[in-house]
Design brief:
Length: 220
């Protein structure tokens, strides 16, 4: 059985919605006994779990702890970055999902490992179209979302998802090996409509399974 540890939700992102999205996406491998999902309570719990060497970690939480009251208070330290990087280099999988890409130091080891980071999003939510590039989906899909614009070192990773809206276009998903481990980054979604959209759930499932080796390519 593969084990995925996940920390989902932060000041601006509803934990229950993110948890529901993840549980729905992974329902099949969980029910079959192929996968166990361990949802941790906070960043301290997340870091402590790394010592147990789960097969993958999913982070849907930004670096700022209290962005309104204490905007300069962050949980990610250089020591924690080093622990996370070591975990992945030793064979762990890491999914930086939506706000898991946000407000982390652009010159830090964590962001360097991801090879990309959040830049901005428009103030208003608009309909965003997502187009998969790796054959996971036959057609594009869309929903009203918080359209993330990102910096991505495209030459050093595999882009599998792109996004577009009235506000412009961006990369929305990328993945690459890192040491003995794997990295995946996925920018959608913010609202319930997107988090529970069937096509998005298929992508989320595919990335989680790729990270832990349950996908068809790794099983072949």
């Amino acid at each position: 059985m593969k084990i995925i540890a996940a920390l989902v939700g932060d000041y601006y992102h509803n934990e229950e919605l993110a948890r529901a999205s993840l549980q729905e996406a992974l329902a099949e491998p969980i029910v079959s006994g192929a996968l166990q999902l361990l949802v941790v309570s906070d960043t301290e719990h997340l870091i402590s779990v790394l010592g147990d060497k789960p097969d993958a970690v999913i982070l849907f939480a930004e670096n700022r702890v209290a962005p309104e009251a204490q905007p300069n208070l962050h949980w990610m330290t250089p020591e924690i970055e080093a622990r996370i990087e070591h975990y992945v280099e030793e064979g762990g999988g890491w999914l930086a999902w939506h706000s898991g890409l946000a407000s982390y130091p652009a010159d830090g080891r964590y962001t360097g490992m991801l090879r990309g980071y959040f830049l901005s999003h428009p103030e208003q939510h608009e309909r965003v179209t997502y187009l998969a590039e790796n054959g996971q989906l036959d057609t594009a899909f869309d929903f009203v979302d918080e359209h993330y614009f990102v910096h991505c070192e495209e030459a050093k990773t595999e882009v599998f998802l792109r996004s577009s809206s009235v506000d412009g276009s961006s990369i929305a998903g990328w993945r690459h090996p890192y040491g003995a481990g794997k990295i995946s980054c996925l920018t959608p979604a913010h609202r319930e409509e997107g988090l529970l959209h069937p096509d998005f759930l298929s992508l989320l499932k595919a990335e989680a399974e790729w990270l832990v080796g349950l996908d068809s390519v790794d099983q072949a």
